UniProtKB/TrEMBL annotation:
Keyword terms, alphabetized: ATP-binding, Helicase, Hydrolase, Nucleotide-binding
Domain Helicase C-terminal: 260-436
InterPro entries, A to Z: AAA_22, DEAD-box_helicase_OB_fold, DNA/RNA_helicase_DEAH_CS, HA2_WH, Helicase-assoc_dom, Helicase_ATP-bd, Helicase_C-like, P-loop_NTPase
EC category name: hydrolase
CDD domains for the chain: DEXHc_DHX35 (cd17980), SF2_C_RHA (cd18791)
EC number per UniProt: 3.6.4.13
Domain Helicase ATP-binding: 56-221
SMART domains on file: DEXDc, HA2, HELICc
Protein name as catalogued: RNA helicase
SUPFAM superfamilies hit by this protein: P-loop containing nucleoside triphosphate hydrolases
DNA sequence: GAGCACTGC
């Protein structure tokens, strides 16, 4: 390896460059009063057993504490227990701990319950969508996704039952984490008793701290209450991860797939046992890499024999995904070729070598065209470190970066662009509106999105009748749409279905549109999949086709075999059932009675148009075959080949979303009558004369 | 006639 690879100078470190087994402590000098002489100076070493005392001191004195550290440092599981022991969960108060992902919530909650020797769902519980394992009045440590906490704010904006809120993985800067942090800063002004603990990777600690210290407004004084210090404290904890040796390539590669393959082969021939994890960007890359490695394995003098090659991406059927968790057979070495799913969402034991391409697919939003694009883009240093860390879970490991050290140091951005600045903001804005945040542009964003994106979101919500002329939520539509946990266009469609008497059918469509795909990923068997689709295909379009599939699924007795036979993803159908159930409960609470329109698809189609009128397109009669233009901005779009309307090309259609590749493809397409547009949204579309070519 | 990084409510 040494001929080609150059070891990197950087050692993964925390705030200070010290040895393991200590906590590094950085806080304003107020800590001196605590009685520990060694806390008088900033960033003093602190023995590990003082972690508990330090945390409790900081939480007592500071409104916000920022805890940085790596995985395995115990911050996620220990801090809530310390707080409970110190009395933060007394008097009916609850300690909340958020995570960005459902799986993490479940596993952390059960670990803490086990450590405390209590039954999960009693003192320690968790809440995620579709699953509430808490016992109100008994549960005092509650784990939940940050999205669920945001939903809870809609009923209780000041989160009055919580004494401490710990936001974990804040450095990931997800849409809901950032929204939550902005709101929590606001809540703090009204609730001086509330304590925040932000748990973040080292690299983000300073910007988090700056966000929570800068305040345009003073806290509202509550008589008799102790006012904690507004400046956040930072405490840094050493993780238990093993060291990972970083190797950079001597020069840059033009083809990272090939580079990854040859790196895997040289690791295999020169390094001791241990599984290899390769980070590529997407299904295409991964399949190409798997194929190349397999071919090499069959060559007579192959250097890759003994490799067990496993692809990993979220679109892969569950059974194939699970293969990566099976133990490595004796005498074999596992090579997992993965997307970013292995960077945070899945933890693979047994990985000792990581190969990092330096790229990932990232979403970018263009507020002008209102289209989200998926682009292969360079990752950040934070991501690169996270990927490298995946090699140090079981023993010291190695990470091979397919780029030069100079590139890493000089060109790679420190942090990625927060999701907030790369996304469509309609859901975020409606959530803020429902919490009474009137001035969206002036909201204290931790990373402000482009004003164009905020304005576009306001426009879309206004056109849906969710916001009024003063940009306030309308009654009842606006409040009802905010209440439904789906894309506002889908929520609006459901509310209209109530008026058209077809809510039974439309909530099914809403559920299908809210999940990834109901088809199993079948690149090799496209023909068969197309044949199956014909069995369900409806002339009206994809939405009605989904209804036919759902009926077939119910008629089969929700059978997994039926799904398998019809190339339908059983897991996805189960999720459709869950979302439907959630919607039924919610709509009942909103005072709606579910109704079926039986076979009247006209009502259904009009309800869909009431939500998606802004996504209307017209076939270009004089252009090439199958070219459409959006009515809104005259963008060129095409019907996606997976749609039942592909090659049918009705004159007028609406779509659910757009997939951009070399062309813009409409996904989930429905044929419409243009008169429904002016009927559903007269403020949005005005009749220009009689429709000449169309009608 | 061809495509889907990853979450979440």
């Amino acid at each position: 390896m040494s001929r080609f690879w150059k070891p990197g100078a950087e050692r993964p470190q925390l705030l200070d460059d010290e040895e393991g087994g200590v906590i590094f402590f950085s806080a304003p000098s107020s800590a001196a009063g605590y009685g520990y002489a060694n806390l008088e100076r900033q960033r003093q070493r602190l023995p590990v057993y003082k972690f508990r005392t330090a945390i409790l001191y900081l939480v007592e004195k500071h409104a916000t504490s920022i805890v940085v550290g790596e995985t395995g440092s115990g911050k996620t599981t220990q801090i809530p227990q310390y707080l409970k022991e110190a009395g933060w969960a007394e008097g009916g108060r609850v300690i909340a701990c958020t995570q960005p992902r459902r799986l993490a919530v479940q596993s952390v909650a059960s670990r803490v319950a086990e450590e405390m020797g209590v039954k999960l769902g009693e003192e320690v519980g968790y809440t995620i969508r579709f699953e509430d394992v808490t016992n109100p009045g008994v549960t005092v440590i509650k784990f939940l996704t940050d999205g669920v906490l945001l939903r809870e704010m809609m009923d209780d904006p000041l989160l009055t039952k919580y004494s401490v809120i710990m936001v974990d993985e804040a450095h990931e800067r997800s849409l809901s984490t950032d929204t939550l942090l902005g709101l929590l800063k606001k809540v703090q002004r009204r609730r001086p008793d509330l304590r925040l603990i932000i748990s973040s990777a080292t690299i983000e600690a300073k910007s988090m701290s700056a966000f929570f210290s800068s305040s345009k407004k003073r806290p509202i004084q509550v008589p008799g209450d102790h006012i904690p210090e507004a400046v956040p404290a930072i405490i840094s904890v050493e993780g238990k991860g093993f060291p990972v040796e970083i190797h950079y390539s001597e020069e840059s590669f033009s083809n990272y797939v090939e580079a990854a393959i040859s790196t895997v082969i040289s690791i295999h021939s020169q390094e001791p046992a241990g599984d290899i994890l390769v980070f590529l960007t997407g299904q295409d890359d991964i399949e190409a890499a798997v194929r190349l490695l397999m071919e090499d394995g069959q060559a007579p003098e192959s250097r890759s024999s003994g490799l067990l090659i496993l692809p990993l991406y979220s679109g892969l059927p569950r059974a194939e995904q699970d293969l990566v968790f099976s133990p490595t057979p004796k005498g074999k070495r596992k090579v997992i070729i993965s997307t970013n799913i292995a960077e945070t969402s899945l933890t693979l034991e047994g990985v000792v070598y990581v190969v990092d391409s330096g790229f990932s697919k990232q979403r970018f939003y263009n507020p002008i065209s209102d289209i989200e694009n998926l682009v292969v883009a360079p990752i950040s240093k934070a991501s690169a470190r996270q990927r490298a860390g995946r090699a140090g879970r079981v023993r010291p490991g190695k990470c091979f970066r397919l780029y030069t050290e100079e590139y890493f140091v000089k060109e790679m951005p420190n942090e990625g662009i927060p999701e907030m600045q790369r996304s469509n903001l309609v859901s975020c804005v409606i959530q803020l509106k429902s919490l009474g945040i009137d001035n969206i542009l002036g909201f204290d964003w931790i990373s402000p999105p482009a004003p164009e994106s905020m304005i576009r979101a306001l426009e879309v919500l206004y056109s849906l009748g969710v916001l009024d002329d003063d940009a306030k939520l309308t009654t009842p539509t606006g409040f009802q749409v905010a209440e439904i946990p789906l894309d506002p266009m889908i929520s609006k469609m459901i509310l209209s279905a109530n008026e058209y008497g077809c809510s039974e059918e439309v909530i099914t469509i809403a559920a299908v549109l809210s999940i990834q795909s109901i088809w199993v990923s079948m690149r090799g068997a496209q023909r068969e999949l197309d044949d199956v689709k014909l069995r369900f295909a409806a002339a009206e379009g994809d939405h009605i086709t989904y209804l036919n599939i759902y009926k077939g699924f119910l008629n089969s007795g929700k059978s997994p075999q039926w799904c398998h036979k019809n190339f339908i993803n059983y897991q996805a159908m189960k999720k459709v059932l869950e979302i439907r159930e959630q919607l039924i409960k919610l709509l009942k609470r909103l005072g709606m009675i579910l109704k079926s329109c039986e076979k009247d698809t006209l009502a259904i189609r009009k309800a869909i148009v009431a939500g998606f009128f802004a996504h209307a397109c017209r076939l270009e009669t004089f252009g090439q075959n199958g070219m459409y233009k959006t009515l809104r901005s005259s963008q060129e779009v095409h019907i996606h080949p997976s749609s039942v309307l592909f090659r049918v090309n009705p004159k007028w259609v609406i779509y659910n979303s757009i997939v951009s590749t070399d062309r813009q493809y409409m996904r989930h397409v429905l044929a419409i009558d243009p008169s429904w547009l002016t009927e559903a949204a007269p403020h949005f579309y005005q009749l220009q004369k009689p429709y000449p070519a169309a009608y």
